Amino acid sequence: MVPEAGEEGKEIVVDIGVEPRTTTFAAAALMEEEHGSPIVDIDLFDSDASQHMSGHCHCFVDFTKIESRPITAADLCSFSAIGKESLYLELSNGGDTLKILLSEVLYALCMGVTLVSISQVTDAKSSVLFHGNICRIFNSLRTILGEVPKHNGLYQIFTSCPQTAVYAGKAVEVLSIDELYRRLGYVGHDAVHQLMRKGLIKELELDKDSKPSFCESCKWGKGHQKAIQRERKDDQVKAIDNQVHLDVWGPAPVETINHMEYIVTFTDDCSRDMEVYFMKKKDKVFDNYINYEAWLKTQHGAQIKKL
Q: To the nearest whole number, what is the mean pLDDT of the chain?
């Protein structure tokens, strides 16, 4: 992150393989609506951020588009990084200003601040000292590179930016049809295309080469249950023993006090009388059928003709 003495602006590569996160700030506290300003950039020094992150695209030295990666905030909400960049950070050292090059900074469009990861600073063989209301950064030779004052309990730097940066910051996020479909709450791919044609979605661009994929969640969530007929179509039997319907259900999520998990029901088609038997195992269905058959013969003098 920081250059050695006499090597101002030297890039130090940072591995972005780790999961980007911060356990200090909630997602809302990092949003552009919370901190964003057209004339002032805010740089926060975070000891619990795993990587450098920024929403200040006008500060880029270079920019590379990456596959969207979630950044997890302290409240477990997340927002997406869509690129990586290098940018210069201005540190005050007495009356002088030193520019430090941060490399492999994740770019998130909705962020209104730059988060400087203290762990990435120390990984670059630099050291950080928090003392009083000042955070001091040293290189590997123990030469001080800059100081960061504390404002409202946070170590942060406020930097004026030119008005032209306001327009440079209006980056357009390009999303695939599936990403935009999910971001809009699963409204349907046809609805996404219609909203884009009417110009109702601002600051987002649809990747026209992307193809929609099958969504298993929508299959279950938007499925329709076949209507149950309200009237009987076939004729009802005339005698109590002509036809009996058997049904088995289980296992139940909660056992009975006698550890029963299954039930079997016998419903007479003529009288609609139902008998219920509880079972510990499903293989007891036949035993309960014998019991029901005996009960039917004893109580009604009937024998099952069709099951």
A: 75
